């Protein structure tokens, strides 16, 4: 199995970051053929989504998360910025890992699908993402 960690700068506000470029580079660097890609976010306040980007779906996802998880004082987990408790609930809704088949060195995603880091926590501007490839 080959594995690496990439750092993604999400800044101080909510973000959906397409990881496609980093993943393509990783698969190329390990000479991936057939196998399984696993993407893992080792953070208690971030997750991964397989969604369409660039047509508003990423913005819609953040809006839906704001509706589901408002940044207010209802949360028992209260350190950090106002409403930070919602960020700790996020991985229960947007999972911290995703696995995708790799065929002929490429992710077997649908036409408009991308693997994206979802980060609602402005308190942590840099995230680590572990990419692992298991040959099949």
State the strand order across the main sheet: 1-8-3-5-6
Helix content: 10-25%
Order of helices and strands: EEHEEHHEEEE
| Broad shape | elongated
CATH class: Mainly Beta
Describe the main β-sheet briefly. Answer: 5 strands, antiparallel
- Number of beta-strand segments: 8
Strand content: 35-45%
**What is the number of independent domains?**
1
CATH superfamily: YjbQ-like
What CATH calls the topology is Jelly Rolls
Which blocks of ≥5 consecutive residues have pLDDT under 50? none
Average pLDDT value?
A: 95
| Oligomeric assembly | single chain
Task: Please summarize what this structure is.
This protein is of the alpha+beta class and 136 residues long. The protein is 23% helix and 36% strand. It has three helices and eight strands, in the order E-E-H-E-E-H-H-E-E-E-E.
Description:
The protein is of the alpha+beta class and 136 residues long. The chain has one domain: Jelly Rolls, CATH 2.60.120.460. It has helices spanning 20-29, 57-68, 85-93; strands at 2-9, 15-18, 35-40, 46-51, 97-103, 106-107, 114-119, 126-135. The strands form two sheets. It has a five-stranded antiparallel sheet with strand order 1-8-3-5-6, covered by helices on one side. A hairpin with a 2-residue loop joins strand 5 and strand 6. The longest helix has 12 residues, at 57-68. It is elongated and about 50 Å long. Belongs to the UPF0047 family. This is Secondary thiamine-phosphate synthase enzyme YjbQ. Pfam families: YjbQ. It comes from Pseudonocardia charpentierae.
